[in-house]
Amino acid sequence: MQFKKSLMTATLVTLGGFAAMSSANASGTKSSEFGITTTITSVCAIDATAAAISFTDIAAGTAFADGTISNKKSAGDISVMCSNDAPYVINLTTTGNSASTTGEGLMTGVLGDTITYQLHSTLAGDAPWGNAGTLEVTGNGVSDIGIGVSTPVLHSVYATITGSTDVKQDTYSDTITASVIY
């Protein structure tokens, strides 16, 4: 019996040793890879609230040659904030003459008379600013490149009264919508 007990102990110790050796020899390292990605899309914001244009008081019948009804700069600028290096185009649409794509507007008085005007992107008045611009073809819009969503790019708007001011004494106004395509 003693012999069987010793044989059994020897067998268990031997099996345990093989198991320990197998564990020590079986350790290794395997690797696998995975990726990480993100997509940043262009964003733009536009603020035209500061770009109001006022011709102040004009005497009825004032002629274009007088200079008081031509090349008025906006009180502030249109501010555009776009992603860094994102191309964009600003288009202007007048409410009083919404059919126009070339920046021709129509100010209407409370009493019903109207005065026409033209929007420009330059002080010289040689570049009409309308709403026919696209990213592919700037057309009569104004194009630029964004420099970051926290850094505004400013664009001045100019206007010239093109119609007769020989109208009723009144206050004439129109609304212009500035939109950005990016």
Could you list some keywords that capture this structure?
single chain, 182 residues, alpha+beta, 1 helix, 11 strands, 14% helix, 28% strand, rod-shaped
Plain-language structure description:
There is one protein chain. The protein has 182 residues and is α+β, with helices and mostly antiparallel strands. It contains one helix and eleven strands; from the N terminus they run H-E-E-E-E-E-E-E-E-E-E-E. The chain has one helix at residues 2-26; strands at 44-47, 72-73, 78-82, 87-94, 104-109, 114-120, 142-145, 153-155, 158-161, 172-173, 176-181. The chain has a five-stranded antiparallel β-sheet with strand order 2-9-6-5-10, with no helix packed on it. A three-stranded antiparallel β-sheet has the order 1-3-8, with no helix packed on it. The protein has a three-stranded antiparallel β-sheet with strand order 7-4-11, with no helix packed on it. Strand 5 (104-109) and strand 6 form a beta hairpin. The longest helix has 25 residues, at 2-26. It is rod-shaped and about 105 Å long. The model is unreliable at 6-15 (pLDDT under 50).
